[in-house]
Amino acid sequence: MSLSRCLSSHFREDLFTGTDIVKMIVLVSFSAISLMLTAIAPDYSAYLICPLIYCIPILLAALWFPRQGLWVTAFLITGFALIRTYLSVLGFTIDPVMTGLHTMIFFWVFGVTTLFSQDSNLIASRCRRIVEEARDAKFLCDSETLRLVCASRQCADILGYTAQELVGIPAEMIWADEVDKVRFIEEMKLEGYIGNMEMTLRAHNGDARTVLLSCRALVPENLFECTVVDTGRLQDENKDLIRSNGRLMELIQQSNDIFFMQDTAGRILHFSWLRSPDYGFSPDEVVGRDMDCLLPEDLAAQHMEQVRKAIEEQKSVSYDLDLVIADARHTFSVTVAPYTGADGVLSGVVGSARDTTEVRRQRLACRQMSWEVDQWKGLVTTLSHELRTPLQPLIGYLQIIVEDPGYYGLPGETEKLLRTCLECAGQEQAVVEKVVELSLLTMDYVDLTIQDIPLRRLAGSVVSAGGYDTKAQIYNEIPEDVRIWGDPDRLYMAVECLVSNAVKYNEPPEKVWIRYAGSNENHYIMVCDNGIGIPGDIIESIFRPFYIGSTEKRGRKDGRTGLGLSIANKYILLHGGEITVTSAVGEGSTFTIRIPREV
């Protein structure tokens, strides 16, 4: 192994930091200065000063690199002795007693410094940078008591402490199981190293953390350097990842969209399409092949152009692809985006394709329907004008004639016929007005004029204006203080329709009750009668346009058009409410209008 690769491996193992290199340079510099000063001491009469310089590198070596401190001291003492011996041979006066005394002083400095540096605070100071800057979760602990000396932030996070809180914490607060603790100590004393031993540590909140512990003994420092891997967290993250991947794959497999992956050369790495069996191929058949196995040559080239664009620009690209499948033309909306592997290297693209053919058809159908509605609105407007225009003068002239038939010299029989014509024309005019109103309600938006309405007064005006109290006994039982929010004109017409039907489909003694009930959310207006009732099999049909009741009654006598309830119901629906009915044949019916308090 080359020197550069060896040093690189040391750095990856966090044995040295950038600060350690600086310390080595300082140590080598002081060692060289000490040896050089010893060599030139006779020329400058510096015998007393030179030996003191040796104490500096010896002191620094004992503090910074205690495991190599003895070797550094031995090297310096050997160099000191050899230089002194060489000077003696050259004829310089060298005192052997002082040489021996200096040698003993050097060893004494090394010994005292080494013993002093075993204090836990000094060890933590020396090792804290290595541990704190480590990429892994690490801690240092005393080899005898297992009391923590320092810990990295990652280790503190696993145990729920801060790094400062872990300093000096006793082993009993960390090791959850005493048996694990004893086994750990025995293994470390026996081997001096442990690799991935499963342990249970106690977190700050008392929870047990299952971890893998890898430790080595730092013999000169009497410390254990340990690396922690939280297997519990890895298992949870792995389970979450598996569940997420499972849900993602389930969604992909259930989606009608196409999902694919391609490498930078264009080969298909993954392909998923729920509808692929419908077109006679399996996704596994295309994996490992180029896109031209799925697309015609020109479309495959167009797709690869977009793939290269996504890779070169490092951003997602979207485009539309027109393709004929099974003799049917389809349009796909395709999106491709670059993706990188775990090593950060660009691996290819991921993409999706959605068949937007049906969406386009629906949009076209909506535009067609909108056009048809506009045409129908114009037709209704035209028809209403064309139908109303001839009826108005016809009814006007007939009204003038029948009011004074003698003036026009008409016999009684002719007058009777004209009155019948006037009555029929009036009925047709009512039908035209209601048809136009219903058409506008069905096709167009109606803007309500919401006001505060005194309900009893509104019901009273309906009864008096229609003269219904002359045809039946009307009981207005709505309290005086009841007020509701709504469009007065639309509500008037809805109540008028119900009262009109209650009077029209009644039998002696003809009675109609108009009542009110309220709740926290709704108003209820009820119109009850003692009339003929409605058979249960036709109750759901009475709100249909032009429905009268039975085929034998379709002569539309008495001005019946079958539109009143349909229009009334739409007015109430505009208020966010509804009309319901309960009825018994021969006993009568109750129509109930429900309107929300907040329209």
TrEMBL record:
Catalytic activity reported: ATP + protein L-histidine = ADP + protein N-phospho-L-histidine
PROSITE patterns assigned: HIS_KIN (PS50109), PAS (PS50112)
Enzyme class, first EC level, given as a word: transferase
Record's protein name: histidine kinase
Residue ranges occupied by any PAS domain in the UniProt entry: 123-168, 244-314
Key words, A-Z: Kinase, Membrane, Phosphoprotein, Transferase, Transmembrane, Transmembrane helix, Two-component regulatory system
NCBIfam families with a match to the protein in the record: sensory_box (TIGR00229)
Enzyme Commission numbers on file: 2.7.13.3
Domain of life, per lineage: Archaea
Residues covered by the Histidine kinase domain: 382-599
GO molecular function: protein histidine kinase activity
Transmembrane segments: 21-40, 46-65, 72-94, 100-116
CDD domains: HATPase (cd00075), HisKA (cd00082), PAS (cd00130)
A single GO BP: phosphorelay signal transduction system
